[in-house]
């Protein structure tokens, strides 16, 4: 599939991005969601205990129990479904002129970043990404920054170097 964009009176003929983020990113997102779920459940359980210990009104304890039910429902989404959908619908691509980012299903987003506008490119890696050998590539332009999550190490390093070369970014450490 090809996309057509109008730019200054001419049509751009751009290939649809076809690269996907790593399947290992599903594990990372699930681990992050499990940690947030455990922290939220711990807080809610402490609130339930305090509610009984200090004899809070019944309606307040009922609200806390409702929070627990909502948190369990959200956990099904955040741990079970969202990581799979994120990996399935995230696409990126690059040529000599543009970087393309495409993601989302319900709310679809397709970003076209001109390499001439790129001011910086950097790799980020937290402990969970490091465990799986993944990186997040951040691309900064004058008005915003864009991120590609879950790139394998070799691909992230090559893409960072390619973007820097095409965008004429100079490495200040090399001086």
Can you walk through the features of this model?
The chain is an alpha+beta fold and 175 residues long. It has two domains: 2-19 and 92-174, Roll (PH-domain like), CATH 2.30.29; 25-86. The chain is built from four helices and nine strands. The strands form three sheets. The chain has a four-stranded antiparallel sheet with strand order 3-4-5-6. The chain has a three-stranded antiparallel sheet with strand order 7-8-9. It has a two-stranded antiparallel ribbon with strand order 1-2. Helix 1 runs antiparallel to helix 2.
Please provide the count of β strands: 9
Name given to the CATH architecture of the largest domain? Roll
Structural class, by secondary structure, is alpha+beta
Distance between the termini: 43 Å
Q: What is the average of the pLDDT values? A: 91
* Radius of gyration (Å): 22 Å
Total helices: the number is 4
As residue ranges, the low-confidence spans are none
> Main sheet, how many strands, which sense, barrel?
4 strands, antiparallel
Tell me the count of domains: 2
Shape summary: elongated
Please report which band the strand proportion falls in: under 5%, 5-15%, 15-25%, 25-35%, 35-45% or over 45%. 25-35%
């Amino acid at each position: 599939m090809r996309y057509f964009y109008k730019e200054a009176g001419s049509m751009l003929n751009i290939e649809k991005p076809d690269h996907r983020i790593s399947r290992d990113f599903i594990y990372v997102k699930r681990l992050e969601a499990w940690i947030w779920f455990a922290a939220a459940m711990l807080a809610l359980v402490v609130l339930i205990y305090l509610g009984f210990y200090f004899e809070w009104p019944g309606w307040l304890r009922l609200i806390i129990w409702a929070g627990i039910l909502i948190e369990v429902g959200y956990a099904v989404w955040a741990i079970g479904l969202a990581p799979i959908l994120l990996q399935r619908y995230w696409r990126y691509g690059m040529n000599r002129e543009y970087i393309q980012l495409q993601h989302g299903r319900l709310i679809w987003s397709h970003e076209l970043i001109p390499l001439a506008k790129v001011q910086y490119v950097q790799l980020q890696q937290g402990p969970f990404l490091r465990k799986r050998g993944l990186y997040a590539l951040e691309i900064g332009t004058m008005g915003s920054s864009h991120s590609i999550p879950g790139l394998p190490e070799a691909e992230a390093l090559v893409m960072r170097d390619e973007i820097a070369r095409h965008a004429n970014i100079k490495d200040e450490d090399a001086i």
